[in-house]
Design goal:
Layout (H helix, E strand, L loop, with lengths): L1 H14 L2 H90 L1
Helix pairs in contact: 1-2
Length: about 110
């Protein structure tokens, strides 16, 4: 801001006219708008990076969580399958033996 004031004073001293002062003010305004635009651009870049990092974090967390759930569900399914298989074998064996006994009894 200090540089802008110096430029305006120099223009007023050299030209000593209202037009020069007006031109200096317009120039200073243009510089300030450029600074604001630059700051906004930098802020936008910072927000974009923050959002990107947050999304990356969430994606990584969701991926890991999904892997954990899939592993847990797979393990649980394996346990149920084994339990059902074992139970079926347990039921089938007595039923088979009973059927054989009845068949033998009926056959004789």
């Amino acid at each position: 801001m200090r540089i802008i004031r110096i430029i305006i004073r120099i223009m007023i001293v050299f030209f000593k006219s209202a037009d020069a002062a007006q031109a200096g003010i317009a120039y200073a305004s243009m510089i300030q708008e450029g600074d604001i635009a630059n700051r906004e651009h930098i802020q936008t870049e910072v927000w974009n990076q923050m959002n990107y990092d947050q999304i990356e974090y969430w994606n990584y967390w969701n991926y890991n969580q999904t892997k954990r759930w899939n592993s847990k569900n797979y393990d649980q399914t394996e346990k149920w399958n084994q339990k059902n298989y074992d139970q079926t074998n347990y039921w089938n064996d007595p039923n088979y033996q009973q059927t054989e006994a009845w068949n033998t009894l009926n056959y004789e």
